[in-house]
Design brief:
The chain has 206 residues and is mainly α. The protein has a domain of 65 residues. It is 72% helix and 0% strand. Helix 2 packs antiparallel against helix 4, helix 4 packs parallel to helix 7 and helix 7 crosses helix 8. The longest helix has 26 residues.
Length: 206
């Protein structure tokens, strides 16, 4: 009985902090998929047979992480909108995101750029772009040992955009549109922009 009570109290504590245990399995599947596809590429197994083809497409784990991040980070704003309460403080949100990512990331960048032989003579632009997580926007700054950081750079762009999206849905829902409807309309609009942007970018490859 005491064990059951302790488990219940722990679960309640996790939920109060915004942790949803039901998503742990989802997170594990995404992590295993990402590790497996990277191992497949590094060992060359993705080039051989059906199993290799499956390994090469386990990069879908990155998309799973993006979806999970979007759900968990937007959830506090969605709850606030649905309940009519103020949303999270933007300054605190951005500070927590920065503390979670930047210190360890900067250490990795310094080690990779100064310690890997292939990065000898890295330009100042490469250093600044990688330390600032904007390397996917600056030509020729994705470098050895850090190419996988494109996903983190993309994630940080979402972190910065999320408060703006939350503000937009909040403003829209103050009229006749429900918060859920405002979020849906905004989501469809962003999907349309994404399709249009992707189509425009690919015209340069034609």
């Amino acid at each position: 009985m005491s064990v059951r009570v302790a488990v219940g109290q722990t679960r309640a504590s996790l939920l109060a902090r915004g942790h949803l245990p039901v998503l742990d399995a989802y997170r594990a599947v995404a992590a295993i998929a990402v590790v497996a596809t990277h191992v497949g590429y590094q060992t060359g197994q993705t080039l051989h047979g059906l199993f290799g083809s499956v390994l090469s497409r386990l990069d879908i784990g990155v998309a799973l992480f993006f979806a999970l991040s979007g759900f968990l980070l937007y959830r506090p704003w969605a709850v606030a909108q649905m309940s009519g309460r103020p949303g999270p403080r933007v300054q605190g949100y951005l500070w927590r995101r920065a503390l979670r990512i930047l210190p360890a990331y900067w250490v990795v960048v310094v080690v990779a750029l100064s310690g890997l032989p292939d990065n000898d003579g890295a330009s100042p632009a490469t250093w600044v772009a990688n330390l600032g997580l904007v390397q996917i926007y600056v030509p020729d700054t994705l470098t050895h040992g850090l190419t996988q950081m494109w996903s983190l750079s993309t994630e940080v762009a979402f972190y910065l955009l999320l408060p703006v999206l939350a503000w937009a849905t909040t403003k829209a829902s103050r009229g006749r549109v429900s918060p859920l409807g405002a979020a849906a309309v905004l989501g469809v609009g962003l999907m349309a922009v994404n399709v249009g942007w992707s189509a425009w970018i690919h015209t340069f490859d034609a």
